[in-house]
Specification:
By secondary structure, the chain is α+β, with helices and mostly antiparallel strands. It has two domains: 225 residues, 3-Layer(aba) Sandwich (Rossmann fold), CATH 3.40.50.300; 116 residues, OB fold (Dihydrolipoamide Acetyltransferase, E2P), CATH 2.40.50.100. It is built from nine helices and 20 strands. The chain has a six-stranded mixed beta sheet, sandwiched between helices. Helix 2 packs across helix 3, helix 2 packs parallel to helix 4 and helix 3 packs across helix 4. It starts with a strand and ends in a 14-residue tail after the last strand. The mean pLDDT is 92.
Length: 365
């Protein structure tokens, strides 16, 4: 049975549809990330669950109980904000204790609970420090402990790591996931960072224009995107427009070159398709070094190289992108002519309408 349900949620702000009928079912103890660019509706959805806003249509259920009209302080939701939102005149211990105190918990019980939570987030030694005496990462840990203090039924996190530097973000996202698993708390997490979402979630819902484009496990979202937007937003993707020329043989034409692709078998001849190839699946060899140009290769020239440690990303003419070991990439400098081999298996095709354009969202974040 679903623990948290968002049922046909709509939210309009004048003529702007922030949410246009989203549906989510989350089991108890599961971790879902709402992922998407700014303005896609993910924070609006979180605010509706928290009770800070009301939907124009739809319901929010927790354990089968309709919470849509329940006041925020009666929902037992724990909220962690992007900007920490700690009380500056209170110590870390007092900040964590605040929710327990206004709920009338006894002093001894409050002290025990706060001590446990500060230890849980690795701040047992910093309980008497004020927010200005703590780093950004430490302040966010206090905010997390404060949200957990009331033993919420659902934990809500609104881009809690975006204000932190890269190294601290990675450390703290792992801590959040560890704590979530340890406590078994149902969690809804908002982020625009696809790497972050894939790293810590049980499920990911990609949002765009107020709707959920696709929802699935991190592996499903990466390996089997269902729309052009998801294909581009989750990681980096080669996107080549093509047309099926022989559905029986599984052949697709791209810019005058025939590519044999297993996913094209059984499709109608003339169908317009989007060919999706991950950069790590594109094999490069130097042109003229015994390489051969056949039906599953594309000619290109290296335009840029980006060093990423053990991996180097090569961008080429025709919009091709390939990731390969840095050692091998050294043999393919900028300006080199290359042969890009397209695998037959593992390449995805998405059907495109005759007039459908492909959304340009960059290379993810």
């Amino acid at each position: 049975m679903a623990y948290l349900v968002l049922e046909n949620l709509h939210r309009d702000f004048g003529t702007v549809k922030a949410l246009n009928g989203i549906n989510i079912s989350l089991g108890e103890g599961e971790f879902l990330s709402l992922l998407g660019p700014s303005g896609c509706g993910k924070t609006t959805a979180l605010r509706l669950v928290a009770g800070f806003d009301r939907p124009n249509q739809g319901r929010i259920l927790v354990e089968g109980r309709d919470m849509t009209s329940v006041a925020p302080n009666k929902r037992d939701m724990g909220m962690v904000f992007q900007a920490y939102s700690l009380f500056p005149n209170m110590t870390a211990r007092q900040n964590v204790e605040f929710g327990l105190r206004i709920r009338g918990k006894e002093r001894a019980a409050r002290s025990t609970r706060v001590g446990e939570l500060l230890e849980l987030v690795g701040l047992g030694h910093a309980g008497d420090r004020f927010p200005h005496q703590l780093s950004g990462g430490m302040q966010q840990r206090v905010a997390l402990a404060r949200a957990l203090a009331i033993e919420p039924r659902v934990l809500l996190l609104d881009e809690p790591l975006s204000a932190l530097d890269a190294k601290v973000r990675v450390q703290l996202r792992e801590e959040i996931r560890r704590i979530q698993l340890e406590l078994g708390i149902t969690t809804l997490y908002v982020t625009h960072d696809q790497e972050e979402a894939l790293a810590i979630s049980d499920h990911v819902a990609v949002m765009y224009g107020g709707v959920i484009e696709q929802m699935g496990t991190p592996s499903e979202m990466y390996t089997a995107p269902k729309t052009p937007f998801v294909a581009e937003f989750i990681g980096t993707m080669n996107r080549l427009e093509g047309k099926v020329v022989d559905g029986a043989a599984g052949e697709v034409d791209h810019a005058g070159t025939r590519l044999r692709i297993a996913a094209a078998r059984g499709r109608a001849n003339g169908e317009r398709v989007l060919i999706l190839i991950r950069p790590e699946d594109l094999e490069l060899t130097a042109a003229g070094n015994g390489s051969t140009v056949n039906g599953n290769t594309l000619m290109a020239e290296v335009v840029t190289q980006t060093f990423l440690g053990p991996v180097t990303r090569l961008k080429m003419t025709g919009g091709l992108i390939a990731d390969m070991s840095t050692a091998r990439a050294s043999a393919l400098p900028v300006g080199a002519s290359v042969v890009a081999s397209v695998p037959t298996e593992g390449v995805q095709l998405l059907t495109l309408a005759a007039d459908e354009s492909i959304p340009d969202v960059g290379e993810g974040t």
